[in-house]
Specification:
The protein is an alpha+beta fold. Helices cover 24% and strands 23% of the residues. It has helices at residues 38-48, 108-115, 131-145, 185-198, 226-235, 256-259, 332-355; strands at 5-7, 11-16, 22-28, 65-69, 71-72, 75-76, 81-86, 150-158, 161-162, 205-212, 240-245, 263-266, 269-272, 280-281, 284-285, 290-296, 306-309, 315-318. Strand 17 and strand 18 (315-318) form a beta hairpin. It is globular.
Length: 356
């Protein structure tokens, strides 16, 4: 399997399977002399780890990260940073009864077609378990970006239930298990998912990621567009089926006058009167907030029997038991933050290499 590496100057390569002994990654391109310890990474790992509420998978993983290389006396060396997380609570036996069946909505069939085999234990390499290492890499990317760049994510929709943007408060995001910026929406999300979980089903979600303090000038025209790389980063997250930048699909309903982000000078600096472009023009950052949204499909592992086929080409049915997220989009919030950080760190280093 190729394509396990993401990024250019700041890049990471992940390894490991959902039910293997461990998962890990190698992070390349981190400049030397940046203070870094395991606690700097663990705080973000804890946001993503399963089992923190009844609304996520009950798999119990501490996701304790170990730094194996690239850091000495508390600062980065400029060499490859090796990270490892041991798998502690894999239950492979949950998948024995379906090991020869392709789960609809999962990558079992496509992996089998491509490689002639697939890891039935929780999806193996295709499992969202791999994204824990993206979060670890993202923690290092935040250190590269520095304190002036603030990256925050929020869940804004589950199924047809949405937050009220009039109630938006970033301080609320870390106070509830949904990463909701609307405190009043939490009770609605709880009621909705309690019913979904009871029925053995699942729902999708929409996540919004905002990066503030991004300097103007990151990105490149044509084939190195910042927004294109961000779209690819978010689309590469497991179960993501749609990505929007700024006003996104809504731009099709706007007139040219409405869509144009007008500009004025204020205190000697260019300021924008709106941000339909999501903080990027011509693939280059404007200095405004970088805004990305992505849609996560419903978890494909559900109790309701679904029609499928097996590895021998026979028609059959499947019901997936075990521990699964009734809404996998909840834990996608810190993953989206991490991928935003990795793309911005990569483009920051690329900008420095060419323009500074």
């Amino acid at each position: 399997m190729s394509a396990n590496t993401f990024g250019h100057l700041f890049r990471f390569t992940t390894f490991g399977e959902s039910h293997g002994p461990a998962i890990g990654c190698i992070v390349d391109g981190t400049p030397p002399g940046i203070p870094l310890c395991e606690a700097d990474i663990q705080v973000y790992m804890d946001k993503r780890r399963p089992g923190q509420s009844r609304h996520t998978s009950q798999r119990k993983e501490s996701d304790t990260v170990k730094i194996l290389s690239g850091v000495f006396e508390g600062v980065t060396l400029g060499t490859s940073i090796g990270l490892l997380v041991e798998n502690e609570d894999a239950r492979s036996k949950d998948y024995e009864t379906i090991k020869d069946k392709f789960r609809p909505g999962h990558a079992d069939y496509t992996y089998h077609v491509k490689y002639g085999r697939h890891d039935h234990r929780g999806g193996g390499r295709s499992s969202a378990r791999e994204t824990a290492m993206r979060v670890a890499a993202g923690a290092i990317a935040r250190k590269v970006l520095g304190k002036d760049v603030i990256i925050r994510g929020a869940l804004i929709q589950i199924g047809d239930t949405r937050v009220d943007r009039g109630n938006w408060d970033w301080a609320e995001v870390d106070k509830n298990p949904f990463f909701s910026p609307d405190a009043k929406a939490v009770a609605r999300f709880e009621k909705l998912l309690d019913g979904v979980r009871k029925n053995g089903s699942s729902l999708g979600a929409v996540i919004e990621i905002v990066a503030s303090g991004v300097p103007a000038g990151l990105g490149a025209p044509i084939y190195g567009k910042l927004d294109a790389d961000l779209a690819a980063a978010m689309m590469g997250i497991n179960a993501v089926k749609g990505v929007e930048i700024g006003a996104g699909m809504r731009v099709a309903t706007l007139s040219g006058e409405e869509n144009a982000d007008e500009m004025r000078m204020k205190a000697g600096k260019v300021t924008f009167l709106s941000n339909n472009a999501g903080g990027m023009l011509g693939g280059i950052s404007t200095g405004q907030d970088v805004v990305v949204r992505f849609a996560v499909k419903p978890t494909s592992s559900i109790l309701t029997p679904r029609r499928t086929v097996d590895v021998d080409g026979g028609d059959t049915e499947i019901s997936t038991k075990g521990r699964h997220d009734p809404c996998v989009g909840i834990r996608a919030v810190p993953i989206g933050e991490a991928m935003m950080a990795c793309v911005l760190a990569d483009h920051l280093l690329r900008h420095r290499a060419q323009c500074e």
